[in-house]
Amino acid sequence: IVVGTGSTQLYQAALYALTTPGGPQPISVVCAAPYYSQYEQETDYLRSGLYKWAGDAFAFDKEEPYIEVVTSPNNPDGSIRKAVVNSTSNEGKHIYDLAYYWPQYTAITAAADYDIMSFTFSKSTGHAGSRIGWSIVKDEEIARKMTNFIEYSSIGVSKDSQHRAATIMGVIYNSYQDFKSDSTENFFQFGHRLMAERWSRLREVVAMNGFFSLPKFPREFCLFNGDYTESYPAFAWLKINGDIEDCEKFLKENKILSRGGKRFGSDPRFARVSMLSREDVFENFLNRLLTIKGIRNGH
């Protein structure tokens, strides 16, 4: 287990570990679109000679070494992902970003089992300010290189943050060991119910609005909760219908902040909206979506 200052540092550490000592050309880094908007910036920010951003994994067809980042559930659209690069070079390596693979967001259908798997404290419990992430790495040499990168770049990870994260995770773990009442919600049940309620309300508003559409998710059996559930992602991947070409711009004109599809390597008719805001902010978001319907109907 490699601990880092959030998943961003772990991503940089994994890229470094998978590409050192380097070669004549930087190794291509790809991810299937729509992909997390920060991957491109994080990959190219240091202008490393070890690796470079190469865009959409669906379009990558070079017979050369590459690194594919797989985000599952995916940010921004909530889909469950696997590696997609079709290459016969056998020189591909993978980083699995499992930041949202928690039972409040999606069904836990199997134990994750990949060479590099990254998680973040902020998405599991909401404690983003602690800046703690961790990677489970099968190859000891890769793990050692990642640890060295973290030590060189930030002289390790805050001990206060590690202690805080370990304490909170311990409390959650112990609550499950002592959980006996059928009428009391535990931590992940509460999160799952809250996300389910928010998604239900959003789908109702979108259906009434008529100008947007949302992805649909299959019901799957969750091994953690012991029941069938659909996904309730942390973000809504809104698509605007009709002849409007820029969803982000249109939403901004109606006082709704979002992140447009182009930032995710996708169509600008899509936009990502957070489902994790405070309750009053979420209520305002829903009300403003309904207001758009009124404006478009001339009321």
What does this structure look like?
- By secondary structure, the chain is of the alpha/beta class.
- The chain has 2 domains: about 1-160, Aspartate Aminotransferase, domain 2 (3-Layer(aba) Sandwich); about 185-295, Aspartate Aminotransferase, domain 1, CATH 3.90.1150.10.
- The chain contains 8 helices and 13 strands.
- The strands form 3 sheets. The chain has a 7-stranded mixed beta sheet. It has a 4-stranded antiparallel beta sheet with strand order 8-11-13-12, with helices on one face. The chain has a two-stranded antiparallel sheet with strand order 9-10.
- Helix 2 (about 40-45) links the parallel strand 2 (about 25-30) and strand 3.
- Helix 1 packs across helix 4 and helix 6 runs parallel beside helix 8 (about 280-295).
- The longest helix is centred in the middle third of the chain and has 23 residues, at about 185-210.
- It is globular and about 55 Å long.
